[in-house]
From TrEMBL, chain A:
Superkingdom of origin: Archaea
Keywords: Antiviral defense
Name of the molecule in the record: CRISPR-associated protein, Cas5h family
Keyword flag Oxidoreductase: no
Presence of keyword Ligase: no
One matching Pfam family: Cas_Cas5d
GO BP, sorted A to Z: defense response to virus; maintenance of CRISPR repeat elements
Automatic annotation (TrEMBL), chain B:
Coiled coil (UniProt feature): none
Superkingdom classification of source: Archaea
Protein's name in the database: CRISPR-associated protein, Csh2 family
GO annotation (BP), single: maintenance of CRISPR repeat elements
NCBIfam families to which the protein is assigned, alphabetical: cas_Csh2, cas_CT1132
Pfam hit, one: Cas_Cas7
Amino acid sequence: MDCLVFRAKSEYAKFRKPYTTTSALTFLCIHPPAVKGLVGAVMGIDKIDLYKETSNLKIGIQVLSPVRKDMQTLKLVSMKAERDLFSFPVNAEFLRGPEYRIFVSWLPDKLDELEERLKKQKPVFTPYLGVSEYIAKLSYETRCDTEIINGANSVESIIPSRFINIQHSDYHIFTDNIPVCNNEKREYTGYEKVLFAFREGKACSLIGKLKRDIYGIDGNAVFFFE
Amino acid sequence: MANTREYLLIWDSTMANPNGDMLNDNKPRHDEVTGQLEVSDVRIKRFIRDEWQATGHNVLVRTKKDDAGKVMSCTSLIKEIVTDSGVKENDLPAYLLSEYIDVRLFGAVITKPKYDITGPLQVMWSKSVNPAEIKFMQGNSAYSSGEGKSQSTIWSKYISPYALFKTYAVYNDNTAKRQGIEVSEEDLNEFTKALINGLINYRSTSKNQMPRLLIEVVYKEHRIDGELNYVDVNFDTDKEEVRDISQVTLDLEKLAKYYENKKDSIDTIRIYWHGSVKVENLLDDFEVIDI
């Protein structure tokens, strides 16, 4: 399987949980629909075409930075009140210093363009992590042919918990219920409880028997969301 | 049309509260783990918008009061613009884009009629390079809070002695083109002018900041680095103890390397710097500007 690898990092990120309104909370890490948005920004795909254009994109995500959530206060302008309330402060959750390794598999000509744009630092739109003021730095890593690892017993990318019989170790396991697919109206239609692990502040492999295909890329065992 | 470009502004805040956190006793926004201070994108854009307003530009996102002295909502502000200009509802976005420089560069969300205009110029949240101390201060005011008091009121606030910030921004030509926004070279000159002068001119008991170095990398062909973090800030003293720009040296060696490597796609690198800052490794190819 043809696969392209790049890194995305920023000082901040916010992947808003849609059911939280003014006081927004963030998911623990970037999720597949957000990766599609990021790839869409690099390729210059319009918002209305994004769903169709990226429907056959396969995505693997590795969380490289330790998860650090924090709250910040924002002032929102009231859209309804005419005279009583002009603006009001809200707490908003965000992630500090996020960094991800993203694996994408797509149509060869699409990957050619994505590769070219990442290598030459030519994203069509300005890439960001969740909200426009958290501009992202993207760096191309590699493009290679990947193959399924037979009898894999560890994984470096995030993976739905139902696909691994996890073996407990001295690592810290992070878990969150993240959106994995959406529809044309940009509503999240499916969630998965995913897992990833850290040891002494560094990303590490999750060990356990895997129940789905895992691909080997550059020394990493990766699960792809389809 | 203006080409894509990136900006890195280095500025400092002395004995002030660069950006208060309203729900946290209005302490300067900060990262509790590293001690670095933070400033939101909208704080920076406010400096710029206020400067634009003061120099005669039309600015849409501003606090305006109606005849009764009440702050107007977005809806009533738009209604007033529509009435005063006689512009038709369908032509409103085009009208706002041509008349208001902040809409042209930063975009706008208008509630009624509903329009989203994505701005081609994005400003990132800023972080201080040094971990900065936050001090609690109290004092006596001249007046009492009401009649019949034997003492005047006591004020209290948080300030930080010294914080040196990096602020990154990017102007994306593709975003402007895709939305049919006409951004001129002059608009972007007005942006840099307002960025520098806005920081200088906005003074209050809580704000006291000075732009020290501005880098503007203008590309020949579209390119976005994503952070433009090519200035090393070296302190003569411990990071925690720095209190003045004279203790700081800004090294442009990495920027010079970036320029050498990407020469084919870079049109110009413009540099503005404040007289009191020490700068190292400034290439002759860089265009030094005065604002």
